[in-house]
Amino acid sequence: MVAQRGVMTITIRPFNFDDLDDYEALEIIGRNTHPDDYPTVSEIRYMDKLDSTHFRYRLIAEHEEKIIAWVGTREMWWFAAPDQYTVNGAVLSDWQEQGVGGQLWQAIQRVLAEKKAVTMMSWVREDFGRSKRFLENRGFVQVMRDAQSQLDLASFDASRFAGITDKMDEQGIKLYNLLELAQIEPNWKQKVWEMRWPIRQDIPSSEEKKPIPYDEWHKFTIDAPDYTPAGFIVAIAPDGEYIGWSNIKRSDADPKKLYTGVTGVKRAWRRKGIATALKLRVIAFAQANGFERIVTENEENNPM
Q: How many whole angstroms separate alpha carbon 184 and alpha carbon 174?
């Protein structure tokens, strides 16, 4: 599709999932628009391959054969209700405010109309006022707000929590990373997966969730390129029940940075210091391995 705005002609075409140049353009745009937090080519390609059994579609905008913007949609198959899709995209900073995003929006709307989409969901940083207005002008309303926190590992003093280890010992609670767990429990993957759903149900969400099948969990967790088993800590009760976990993920773009995946504990075991103990083990791993900071996000009304 060719669109014209004044004397500027933009070509909009489907993203080529087999073309490395298209992927490299996405990373370039990410570096430009989100220099402190962007996905690399390898991360984008892996997620596309991983999610290939579910609907995923992407369009790119070109000017004189240079890729200047993209928009994509993805089926939110992890939600209970059908026909829900994400919509996300980005425009190179030099090309913003020139109608490129609007043209991509119209093009992706035609794709979603064919899919009979009921709900569209997007994410935007609060300090990106232009992007926020773009979505609001197209009918989006805020349903959740996450706050980001960063821990400077060099200045973190674990001695402030010196009593936590004793508290775990007194309750008979053991903590293992996944490498350790694999040495003592042949069925550890199944047990970690079974623990996941009771905890995930209490994590805030804009929509009702559904359990993820074991094979899907394995693909998105154990097989993921950012999987870090030594930084994936599990808490086990005296009777062998898996009761909580905390994990981190590596960043291709910044090898000194880690992201928190999930820290959660089953309801019956909360308010016993377990989440703090899990966090401390993750932090100890990060410090011992030369990382500089851990980034985490929490929904603003989440009491956990």
A: 13
Give the three-state DSSP class for 281: helix
Radius of gyration of the chain (CA): 22
The parent domain of residue 124 ranges over 2-142
pTM above 0.70, yes or no: yes
Instruction: Give the SS3 label for residue 301.
Output: coil
In a domain, 304, yes or no: no
The H or E element containing residue 170 is helix 164-171
Question: In terms of domains, do 176 and 264 share one?
Answer: yes
- The enclosing domain of 230 has a CATH number of 3.40.630.30
Mark whether 74 and 133 lie in a shared domain: yes
Which residue type sits at 132?
K
Q: Produce one character per residue of 54-65: b if its CB has 16 or more CB atoms within 10 Å, e if not.
A: eebbbbbbbbee
**Counted domains in the chain:** 2
Tell me the mean pLDDT per 10 residues along the chain, length 304. Answer: 61 97 98 91 89 90 96 90 93 95 96 94 90 93 89 95 94 98 97 96 82 92 92 98 97 92 96 97 97 90 61
Distance CA 107, CA 260 (A): 35
- Asked whether 44 and 27 are in contact (CB, 8 A), the reply is yes
> Is the torsion defined by CA of 101, 106, 107, 112 positive or negative?
positive
Maximum separation of any 2 CA atoms in the chain, in Å: 74
Phi, psi of 263, rounded to the nearest 5 degrees? -120, 120
Q: Return the closest-CA partner of residue 287 out of 165, 159, 114, 194.
A: 159
Does the residue 202 lie in any domain?
Answer: yes
Of the three residues 142, 166, 191, the one that is the final residue of a domain is 142
Report yes or no: 63 and 111 within 8 Å, Cβ to Cβ.
no
Residue 144 backbone dihedrals phi, psi, to 5 degrees:
-150, 160
Pair (134, 155) in one structural domain = no
